[in-house]
């Protein structure tokens, strides 16, 4: 019996919908943090990073996860919890009131097969940076995970919106490629092509409520630096704050 053949899924998709149409879906539905919010507090959870370990009792004891089948316990690690929390607060939302929306990191290691360690998001300077995130309807996140052209356009928009691009060493080639981008026909009309040109659709303005959330975050960081338990990563937090020139 012969085995049926099927083409690459991305190629099949490209045959029925153009890149411009996909970008337009994202343009009309994405939610962006305001550049004013980015300037006010660019980094919200410097104590956390992708794959970072969780602790309880104010950073005094490891938070363990127990496997129900084997009984083995492993140290609980961060995936996207605090990135989601950051984006929710910086957009002035509540997580339970944003069903079927996903946090999408803009700058990170591109790996559609999810086999490479994302060292960019393992860096505390970039994991909870609001200039490194956009909120997308969950089905559309797949486009950013698998289509490099969509990821490139998001990066172009973000660096023009926030006047910043991730300078992690793993981003050097990607950033250089952005400088030679030529497919402006597919690039969304409302997205800026140069710094401060205009705001894309879906930008959430900095409101008093968002500013209050940012102030609470700064107060919590200040308190933890002084009083948190022995596992609190004080040196790493201090380094991340210094990178962003954040004063508490």
List the defining traits of the structure above:
248 residues; 10% strand; two-stranded antiparallel ribbon; mainly alpha
How would you summarize the topology of this molecule?
Layout: H1 9-16, H2 19-29, E1 32-33, H3 35-40, E2 55-56, E3 61-62, E4 64-66, E5 73-75, H4 81-90, E6 101-105, H5 124-127, E7 133-137, H6 138-146, H7 148-162, H8 172-178, E8 203-204, H9 208-227, H10 234-244
Parallel strand pairs: 1-8
Antiparallel strand pairs: 2-3, 4-5, 6-7
Write a structural description.
- This protein has 248 residues and is mainly alpha-helical.
- It has one domain.
- Helix content is 41%, strand content 10%.
- It contains 10 helices and 8 strands.
- It has helices at 9-16, 19-29, 35-40, 81-90, 124-127, 138-146, 148-162, 172-178, 208-227, 234-244; strands spanning 32-33, 55-56, 61-62, 64-66, 73-75, 101-105, 133-137, 203-204.
- It has a two-stranded parallel sheet. Strands 2-3 form a two-stranded antiparallel sheet. Strands 4-5 form a two-stranded antiparallel sheet.
- A hairpin with a 6-residue loop joins strand 4 and strand 5.
């Amino acid at each position: 019996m012969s085995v049926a053949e099927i083409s690459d899924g991305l190629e099949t998709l490209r045959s029925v919908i153009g890149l411009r149409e996909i970008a337009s879906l994202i343009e009309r539905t994405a939610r962006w943090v305001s550049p004013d919010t980015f300037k006010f507090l660019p980094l919200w959870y410097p104590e956390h990073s992708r794959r970072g370990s969780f602790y309880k009792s104010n950073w005094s004891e490891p938070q363990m996860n127990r496997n129900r089948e084997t009984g083995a316990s492993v140290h609980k690690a961060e995936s996207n919890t605090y990135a989601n929390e950051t984006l929710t607060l910086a957009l002035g939302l509540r997580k339970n009131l944003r069903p079927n929306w996903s946090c999408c990191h803009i700058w990170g290691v591109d790996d559609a097969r999810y086999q490479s360690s994302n060292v960019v998001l393992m860096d505390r300077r970039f994991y909870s940076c609001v200039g490194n995130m956009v909120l997308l309807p969950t089905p559309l996140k797949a486009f950013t995970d698998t289509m490099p052209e969509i990821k490139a356009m998001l990066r172009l928009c973000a660096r023009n919106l926030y006047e910043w691009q991730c300078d992690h060493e793993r981003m050097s080639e990607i950033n250089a490629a952005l400088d030679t981008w030529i497919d402006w026909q597919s690039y969304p009309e409302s997205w800026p092509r140069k710094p401060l040109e205009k705001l894309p659709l879906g930008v959430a303005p900095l409101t008093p409520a968002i500013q209050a959330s940012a102030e609470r975050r700064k107060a919590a960081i200040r308190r933890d630096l002084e009083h948190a338990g022995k596992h609190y990563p004080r040196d790493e937090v201090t380094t991340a704050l210094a990178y962003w020139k954040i004063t508490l």
